[in-house]
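Case 386 in the screening queue. Each case pairs one protein sequence with one candidate compound; here the compound is iron/sulfur cluster. For every case the pipeline is the same: read the inputs, emit a complex structure as tokens, and attach any notable structural observations.

Predict complex for case 386.
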Amino acid sequence: MSEQCTNHMEYMPGMEVLESDVMDQVISDMHAYDYNKYTAEDVRRALNHDYRTLEDFAALLSPAGGEFLEEMARLAKEETRKHFGNSVYMFTPLYIANYCENYCIYCGFNCHNKIRRAKLNSEEIEKEMQAIAKTGLEEILILTGESRKMSDVKYIGESCKIARKYFKLVGLEVYPMNSDEYEYLHKCGADFVTVFQETYNSDKYETLHLAGHKRIFPYRLNAQERALKGGMRGVGFAALLGLDDFRKDAFATGMHAYLLQRKYPHAEIAFSCPRLRPIINNDKINPKDVHEPQLLQVMTAYRLFMPFASITISTRECERFRDNVIGLTATKISAGVSTGIGSHVEEAEDKGDDQFEIADTRSVDEVYEAIKSKGLQPVMNDYVYV
Ligand code: SF4
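Case 386 output:
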């Protein structure tokens, strides 16, 4: 396959090149991050600070930090309460297409996996959105596989326009694009852009992303900055924990968000914390173990380092874990989730295969009740357009 020879650090034609030093800073600090050097004393010092520095963040993510999980969780809960009160935000993702031109070896949607491919047309998207809106949700996350050919920017823009009719907040998790394209999608109604970097270790990244535009590491890493330049209100960050050294990846994710927050103070920052899940037609992926305590450590470290950031807990995690982290460190939870194409309208045929298996299949009502039962307040939206 000729594409496999593409240099993953070289931009492809048409990809916007930003004058930005954010990537270089993130990568060099991540490589320099020696988590084994941190001691219990470093962690205690970090916990005692009112505002935590990057060095504190590094200590909290270290193995030494793992010994203080209970204390980290207690303080994270305080910070969450301070910045978000009782609120837990609810949303649902809608997959509108699963065509993908990339070859990510860990993903069921990859271009070499023989799955049912599908793409919803405008009418189908509207029906799906109507069905979702009926559940009371006011925020939607629109997802596609990464195919510019099958899901071009105009198609995504039209979906945003439809979404704006039914929802107050529209997020996007689609392929990275140039800032003028983000500007267009913002005009169509999108507020947020999330891009998973997967891993910040570019050598590892190269071995996991064998073909397609996603292979180009720096173009992906600079997507959030291009989205902010395009006028998006907020950006989301994530490493897929388990692909590589999760401590380094979590450190790089936090640092990436922190540097962009400093450069664009108005930006709303969000973290997602996905771990690898089993996918169809692939039993060869062997995730590096990130168990629940490690995941909790990462989530609490994000909260203590950037207390005002939104943290989403996805349905990749089980009901028990999700219910335990809301209000503690997570502030946003998805509900009524399907990762297939066209699955919210009961009479409609489910057209495309799912991207990954989900562990929490509860409906919107069930998640709503679960939030309330913990003495928290389910919130559909807190943003008003005037
Ligand atoms: S992770 Fe995203 S880009 Fe990669 S194969 Fe899956 S859908 Fe495509």
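Case 386 observations:
- The radius of gyration is 20 Å.
- The pocket of iron/sulfur cluster is lined by residues 100, 102, 104, 107, 109-110, 145-146, 214 (CB under 6 Å).
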